[in-house]
Every structure is written in C-alpha cells, then in structure tokens.
Amino acid sequence: MPYTHVGAVTGANKGIGLAIVRQLALQYPKSALHKSNPESQGLLIYLTARDNSRGEAAVRSLYEEDAQLKKSKALKKDGGWADIKFHPLDIRDTRSIRGLADYLRGEHGERAVDFVVNNAGIAMDGFDNNVVKTTLECNYYGSLEATQEFLPLLKPNGRLINVSSMLGKLNKSPL
C-alpha cells in the first residue's frame, strides 16, 4: 500500500522511542504533514530496535493493546491514517544501518522519507574505560553513521531529529 508520508524512529521498542511512535500516529491527522496534502494516503512509521523479538512485540502492543490508539482510531486498521511496521536496526553495526537505509530506498525510493528520529542509544552502569568506549561507539559514532546514511533518504523538506538524554552522559559527578 502506498503512503504519502514515511518516517522512522530508531530505538523505539520501549521508553521515549515507543512514546514517539505512538504520538506520531496519534498526532498525524492534525499535523502540518497531513494538512499540507489533502490527498494523503497516510503515514507509515518504521519502529526500529536492535532486538527483533522486542521490536515485533512493541509493534504488536501498539496494534493490540494500546488503548489510546484504539480510542482515537489512529491506525489504518481502525479507520485512521497511520501504520506502524517493525524493521531491525542496531546502530552499533554498519551493516544494520546500511540495511535499513537500503530497505527504505528500495521500498520508497530516493529522497522519499519525511523524517527520521534518532533515538537509539545505550546507557551502561558504572564508569570505566569499557563503559566510555562502548557508550561513545554507540551513542556518538553509531548515531553519526546512521545520520550520514539516512540524510540522503530525506525529502527536500524532511527532518532528522536526534534525541538524547542525561543517561548517556559521560561524567563521574552526580547530576
């Protein structure tokens, strides 16, 4: 099924990422994206996660258990405008990043994505060389590589949003 608008949210199987996916589906009918195109065929949101079973479970929970989405009839299956699909993505893995970019390009074409929300990241316990190295590799270098792969996929007026939190902060001092 063709969609007028396409987006992706990384690290979306729980927490902030999952909430972003839910809100995108809920808010789409009132958004400038939808209102700018009266012939809109809806919004497809790719919920991504590094763990397939958790990502698929998150999509299932939105379709089957989310009272907010059901009540508002936000999803196409209920007569709304949004669909949500899972796609694996581990921003620590170059092949995984390129795999998602290639998939989006193959399914939707060049410069066909409206937005990408970079939310994926890790927060580790403790503070030592391994924590610093792993956190930087994922939260900085992985996000940078994902950004570089996804930017060419964006429509001319598309958006790439980077989400961060204090959980990934590399500092020994307390908040």
Automatic annotation (TrEMBL):
<protein>
    <recommendedName>
        <fullName>Carbonyl reductase</fullName>
    </recommendedName>
</protein>
<comment type="similarity">
    <text>Belongs to the short-chain dehydrogenases/reductases (SDR) family.</text>
</comment>
<dbReference type="GO" id="GO:0016491">
    <property type="term" value="F:oxidoreductase activity"/>
</dbReference>
<keyword id="KW-0560">Oxidoreductase</keyword>
<dbReference type="InterPro" id="IPR002347">
    <property type="entry name" value="SDR_fam"/>
</dbReference>
<dbReference type="Pfam" id="PF00106">
    <property type="entry name" value="adh_short"/>
</dbReference>
<keyword id="KW-0521">NADP</keyword>
<dbReference type="InterPro" id="IPR036291">
    <property type="entry name" value="NAD(P)-bd_dom_sf"/>
</dbReference>
